Amino acid sequence: MSEYKTDIDIAREVTGEHINVIGAKLNIRKEDLVPFGHDKAKIAWNAIDRAQKNKDGKLILVTAVTPTPAGEGKTTTSVGLTDGLNKIGKQTTVCLREPSLGPCFGMKGGAAGGGYAQVIPMEDINLHFTGDFHAITSAHSLLSAMIDNHIYWGNANNIDSRKV
Asked: Per-residue pLDDT tens for 126-161?
């Protein structure tokens, strides 16, 4: 057996904190959290408006990284950077986009980071998260069906299906 733990082994050893505890550490009011279970939340706009008044705030963007052969990329870098800054006493958090489904089908690295720089629960993050992707894909499917139907029934708006 390998002397190194797998990402999933590390993730299963950890008990996540309740989202209200995490929010309190970041000075986010409980009423400003829109929870999705016990470990995820969106933040209400009024909290974002208040945060913009903080002149000491800084923003670090991790926008492009060529992953290592082991798969460390943008998410691992972002989570590791956040952990490191918190370790030295800086109040930090990370905002990650909802990942594509590539990791679920073995097409790319896990979108939850890796090793000790990962986000849990990885299953939720990789598959459904807060439900935004489902809403987007449903809207996309509806629009596609409406355009197909419009073209089929005469295309009164002269939609060029090659350019849609």
From this structure: 666 777 777 888 899 999 999 999 999 999 999 998
The answer to whether the pTM exceeds 0.85 is no
pLDDT digit string, tens, across residues 35-76? 888 888 888 998 888 888 877 878 788 888 888 887 778 888
- What's the 3-state SS for 97-113? CCCCCHHHHCCCCCCCE
φ, ψ of residue 159 in degrees (nearest 5): -75, 130
Which CATH architecture fits 7-129? Answer: 3-Layer(aba) Sandwich (3.40)
Extract the tokens encoding 47.
């909290």
Domain ranges of the chain: 7-129, 131-164
CB 147 within 8 A of CB 154: no
In this structure, what token pair is assigned to residue 154? 């005469």
Q: How far apart are CA 102 and CA 116, in angstroms?
A: 22
Closest CA to 95 of 59, 50, 55, 137: 59
